[in-house]
Amino acid sequence: MELEGKRVGIFIENRYQEFEFWYPYFRMKEAGAKVTIIGTGAKEYTSLLGVPAPGGLVFKSVQELASADSVTSADFDAVIVPGGFCPDYLRRSAAVLKLVRDCFNDGKIVAAICHAGWVLSSAGILKGKTATCLFSIKDDVINAGANYVDQEVVRDGNLITSRLPDDLPAFLREIVSALKER
Predict the structure, then answer these.
(1) Cα separation of 58 and 180, whole Å?
(2) By percentage, how much of the chain surpasses pLDDT 90?
(3) What pLDDT score does 58 carry?
(4) What are the residues facing 67 on neighbouring strands?
C-alpha cells in the first residue's frame, strides 16, 4: 500500500460536493492512508446533491469523526478540502482556518478542489502561490494574492489545487505522488 503510515484529514461541512469528498476519501484509504474526517462540530453533514450508491443507498450525510478544534497539524501529513458549497461554511470556522494555515506553514500537503479555494483565501496562504480553482471563484483566489491558472491540477510546493470533479483523477494522482515523496 503506497501510503501506508500516512495520515490524511478530509474536511467536511454541509453542502459538500459528493464526488470531491468521497473520491479522495476512498482513494486515500485504498492507498493505505489513515483517513480522518474533520468537521466543524456538527454530528452530521448533508451533501449537496445526494449520490446513489450500490443497493439503492444514498450518501446524503456522513458522521463526523473529528472536530477541527480537536486536532492539530501534527496529526496529519496532508489535509484535503473538497468543494461544493461546504467551503463557504468551513471558511467561517476559526479552527478550520488555523488548521489549514498551520498545516501549510508546517510544510504538510494542503489540497483543495473547486470552491475550496475560498478556504485557502480565508486562511491567507495563497499570496505568491500559483493555484487553480473553479472559474467562478478565480477572482477571490487572485484577490488573495495567487497567480491563477486554468489547469486541471496545480502543485506549488506543498499546495495542490484543482478545478472540478472531472479533474479528480489528476488531483488525486498529484496528492498521492506528493505524499509518497515525504
Answers:
(1) 33
(2) 85
(3) 62
(4) 39
